[in-house]
User: Which sequence fits this backbone?
């Protein structure tokens, strides 16, 4: 990753209209700031607290939306996978695969993702140290696939909160892979009694600016025109209109550090 990268999009693919609106808006921002943009949308949500939580609009429908958006706008796309058997099919629709934080130790999943030859974004588990992510990285690289990144998203702090270690990005960069900062999941407040994950999106900018100053190679930001109306993670997504000011500040910091 020579250019700064932004992985951004809705938590889950809801429909074509919303997905296309987000992708076009973010792509225009990234073009103006010379940022490499990868559109993200989960085609299926598997890690849900409640049985009745939204899990998706249907695998094929969501994957086709991802593929169509990538082709229509001319951008790369990424989505989550949860089991090794998914890789063969999902790889036909996107250019990158994402390993959810809860699954970053699943050997068969990491090997299958590596064997796809696609880029692999491995999210650090909330229960993992930065240094221990070397083993997840090794599993992907053992396939001959060196296009893998690590993604910081905070660590469990008690039962209902996360905390971000300011040294984590530096430590993971020593493992020899680009490091992405997940600026939205890191502000989560998990395990709420309602069964719906809470969060504090007012902290997203602070997380992003701290990460850029400690060497992050990119951001992961889930964003939506109306987060409160989103079908998944409404309490942690960034309002779409608030994205550009954060990125402008971050790019100024990066430019100053690299001058």
Assistant:
């Amino acid at each position: 990753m020579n250019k700064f990268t932004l992985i951004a999009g809705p938590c889950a693919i809801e429909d074509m209209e919303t997905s296309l609106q987000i992708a076009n808006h973010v792509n225009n921002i990234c073009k103006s700031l010379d940022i490499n943009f990868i559109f993200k949308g989960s085609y299926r949500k598997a890690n849900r607290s409640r049985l009745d939580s939204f899990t998706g609009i249907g695998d094929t429908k969501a994957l086709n939306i991802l593929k169509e958006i990538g082709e229509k706008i001319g951008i790369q796309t990424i989505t989550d996978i949860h089991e090794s058997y998914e890789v063969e099919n999902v790889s036909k629709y996107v250019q990158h695969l994402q390993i959810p934080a809860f699954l970053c130790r699943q050997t068969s999943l990491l090997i299958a993702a590596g064997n796809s030859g696609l880029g692999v974004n491995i999210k650090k588990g909330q229960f993992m140290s930065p240094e221990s992510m070397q083993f997840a990285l090794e599993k992907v690289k053992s396939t001959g696939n060196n296009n893998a990144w690590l993604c910081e998203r905070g660590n469990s702090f008690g039962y209902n909160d996360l905390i971000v270690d300011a040294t984590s990005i530096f430590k993971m960069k020593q493992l020899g892979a680009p490091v992405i900062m997940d600026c939205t999941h890191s502000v989560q407040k998990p395990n709420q009694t309602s069964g719906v994950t809470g969060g504090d999106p007012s902290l997203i900018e602070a997380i992003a600016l701290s990460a850029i100053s400690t060497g992050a190679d990119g951001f992961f930001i889930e964003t939506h025109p109306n987060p409160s109306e989103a079908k998944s993670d409404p309490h942690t997504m960034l309002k779409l209109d608030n994205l550009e000011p954060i990125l402008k500040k971050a790019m100024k910091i990066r430019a100053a550090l690299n001058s």
